[in-house]
TrEMBL record, chains A, B:
Gene3D superfamilies named in the record: 3.30.70.920, Winged helix-like DNA-binding domain superfamily/Winged helix DNA-binding domain
Name assigned to this protein: Lrp/AsnC family transcriptional regulator
InterPro entries: ArsR-like_HTH, AsnC-type_HTH_dom, Dimeric_a/b-barrel, Tscrpt_reg_AsnC-like, Tscrpt_reg_AsnC/Lrp_C, Tscrpt_reg_HTH_AsnC-type_CS, WH-like_DNA-bd_sf, WH_DNA-bd_sf
The UniProt record lists the keyword DNA-binding: yes
Source organism of this protein record: Zhouia spongiae
Domain HTH asnC-type stretches: 4-65
Keyword set includes Transmembrane: no
Pfam family, one: HTH_24
Ranges that cross the membrane: none
Keywords of this entry: DNA-binding, Transcription, Transcription regulation
Amino acid sequence: MTSLDAIDIRLLEALQKDAKQSIKQLAELVNLSVTPVHERIKKMENSGLIKEYVAVIDPDLLGKTLVAYCQVTLVRHKEDQFQEFEAYMNTLDEVMEVSYVAGNYDFLIKVLLKDMDEFQYFILHKLSKLEVISNIQSSFVIKSFKNNSAIKIRK
Amino acid sequence: MTSLDAIDIRLLEALQKDAKQSIKQLAELVNLSVTPVHERIKKMENSGLIKEYVAVIDPDLLGKTLVAYCQVTLVRHKEDQFQEFEAYMNTLDEVMEVSYVAGNYDFLIKVLLKDMDEFQYFILHKLSKLEVISNIQSSFVIKSFKNNSAIKIRK
DNA sequence: ACTGAAAAGAGCGCACT
DNA sequence: AGTGCGCTCTTTTCAGT
């Protein structure tokens, strides 16, 4: 892990908000010429700190307005059941996030769907197909704030 | 909402994986010349379907290895308490996501931190400052899969 | 580690089919 | 809606401080 100075941090914060800014713009932001800014960014890309650049799509405009969090509990806690669960989750497009957690349940999954009909279908015909699942508790998102992916970088 | 054809969908899927691809590359992908690809992308940007382009940073390389989900319940359900809660969440950098949900609790928040010490500090000195909170139940992420932001686009 | 300039490449508009 | 060309801006490399 390469150490970051104040300029790197400002660049990262800027790129997390808008990755399409030109190096020239970024250079003006940090009061440098383009070359060092270019080098700094390339270094952070190569180290893996900047993992990727992605387009963010508005799910609402695709008709995907229902977000649900499902707390899933498995019947017993055996290694291959976890792998089976994980593998199956990877085949489901509507499943956006899967976290294996320590707490009152085993997995927290975030699901993005069109509506309640799709949700019902998802639960009854997709999730419930797994016999390793003993319990599912769902919460529906009414409103969400702060869906930003930007990580605050402190020294 | 403008309707999407198969080419738009392929472009969106490609841009969700890697926003730094050149239009030339994308044009080859969909077997078109650069101009229509450029027009299609601009149209999707202007309609708001493509909301933004962002750099994705690896939290592990910044030492942020602890992800927690906190289920927060408020004391009573009054409008201004929700706004107070929302406003305060917006001031906290470690809070990545806030969802107001229908279920057994009121809010699900996702928190990104360095370690358990930071978590303890977060709960005791930041979250608990809000008197409107009556209960917090936390689950810690041991392992997470599918942390991709890519939305599956079907017709 | 930075500046400045120069070559290579991408974005973007235009005339046309 | 599509192709192909041309101008402009950006990225990327290189010599020099």
